[in-house]
Amino acid sequence: AGSDEHDFKTKMHYTNWLERFPESPYRDQALFRLGTALFRLNEIKTAETIDTVSGGKKSTKKEANDTIAFRIPVYSAMSCFDEIIRKHPKSEWVNDAYFYKSLCFDRMKQSAETLKQLQNYLYLYPRGEHAVAAKFHLARLKEQSGDPQSAIAVYEDLLNNFYYSSYADSAAQGIGHAYVSAKKFKQAVIAYENSRKYNADEFSAVDIL
Question: What are phi and psi of 4, to 5 degrees?
């Protein structure tokens, strides 16, 4: 409850701030702060209705355009991340925006689009801040979509290149799960045995270049 209250206050603060300072050089940062708060509040996609000025009455966008000249914009997590990507391509937050956009599609249970967005993120930022998480989510979705061999390839790539990450143990177990999905039970047993050697604490002191 406390976390939701904090995110709601963040939502109100940055919504008002963005309207007061639409040309601010810090707009990209404000959009990211607002977008992540909205994501945590599960306000992923802009609603089809907005609040008009008159008593908070709900109306369609077209009706609102026909009857009032001023209204409070409706932001969503997706609209915030999209604006960063479209209007602030050189922003330090654009890496995060691309990744969170994929999470938005995942939250909306649009698996095909989530896969597309994760692959796009990894194409743009193969060593990006969220590359490990993106690879793990990509492998998980490939397995769920009925492509365990592709999932195994991604999990193995994660283990080979990011063995020090906190995802290593889960990725190693994921290989076992994928082999089970492919009905290759001997390989699954071997993979589960191999997964025992992966432990996040074991790599906590490794310097990441």
Answer: -65, -40
